[in-house]
Known about the structure:
Blueprint: E1 2-5, E2 43-44, E3 68-69, E4 74-80, E5 88-101, E6 106-110, E7 134-140, E8 150-151, E9 155-165, E10 169-170, E11 173-174, E12 178-179, E13 182-188, E14 194-196, E15 204-206, E16 226-234, E17 246-253, E18 258-268, E19 278-285, E20 290-293, E21 322-324, E22 327-330, E23 332-338, E24 341-347, E25 350-352, E26 355-357, E27 360-362, E28 366-376, E29 381-390, H1 394-397
Parallel strand pairs: 10-20, 16-28
Antiparallel strand pairs: 1-29, 2-3, 4-5, 4-7, 5-6, 7-13, 8-9, 9-12, 9-18, 10-11, 13-14, 14-15, 16-21, 17-20, 17-23, 18-19, 22-27, 23-24, 25-26, 28-29
Amino acid sequence: MKKTFIYIATLMTTAFLASCSASSDAYEEELPGDFPLTFSQVAIQSLRTTATHSKTANITSSTNQTSDPLQQGFIVNAWKDFQLDNQKTVMDNYQVKYHYDSWNSVYSWEYASKSETYIKEQKQTYWDKKGFPYAFYALTPYPEDASGITFTTNHLTIPETGVFQFQTCDNGRPSTGREDFFPCQIIRNADGKDYDLMIDNGTKEINTGSTALTRQVSLPFHHFTSKVRFGIYSGIKEGSLKDVPVTDIKIKVTSNNFITEARGYDVDLSTTPLLKGKFTKLLSTQEHPVLLTTDDKESNLNDLALCNSDDKAFMMYCTDGILQIPQSGVQLSISFKIGTNIFKDIPLILNENGTSTETFTWQPNYIYTYLIKVKDIVKREIECTAQIADWDYIYATINTDLEK
Length: 404
């Protein structure tokens, strides 16, 4: 899903473990003709797996990004007859490990392999064709210390040891940033259709190549964080000017109490969508951090004579974007040079329908891309638009049809 707004904002997966109950029936008996419940095509697009930031290409469209197989393992809880009176647990905090078969060049995710060692005893689970709907709540990576972590049908709690930190980007070199956990919630209904409960209010159908009830389960993990990206372009007519490099770019936060780190997370899933919960502790700064800078040593990519439309924007050597903590009230400014013309600390402000907007809200699992158009070099006039897209590239880039 992609949404585009003329908006001066830019555009744009927590620890987990459900506590085991004494009545858990996670170990099911194998019956003749039963089909084992297995996972495949687990995917994530994140700091842990994304390609490095490119200084050799301008990519305005966020959908060009790719996702990778999840190699760090995850923890999963699963229920059959989900949200019915006879709901039963079939996987209780199962540890699932990534396995790559180099001989056959095939990867999979195993929770009952005889060649693996797990935190606790885990037996192969089998599908109950009369037990639909099934639901799967997962968190990656499998935490070193699961104490204080709860992921049940009604609640998610991550202790303050789960940390999320913002990023900056210095001339194409992003800072480390941090995302300790990524969540996933899917449901398979009696008609064999799978839905991602975290996207589009649970209406996002996934794994659409088949509706076989016992096909493998694909888990798309998402983000508690946001990302922002910045691009700049001109309205210069093709061929009218040559060699108009934009240099010394600086994107700066100008609002107070800018949140740079979050710890822990809590949400009541009986009343609130998972991504609408709250971080337990927030750390902010009054120092107005610089989010992004570029220097003047590159050529071609930053030539505004060539970057003369929004789809050709110079993406400031940071095409993948930088991680941010979801928050509201953000204010930004931009400085840059075009030849001897200096544009200094210009606020990013939206003027639309007679209304000016200068504060922005970043929500989890979204990417915000700010596109700045230089209207007049001499008069130092700019205008901004923003594109907002769900951070769900996995649907476009990872084949979740598992029957192959």
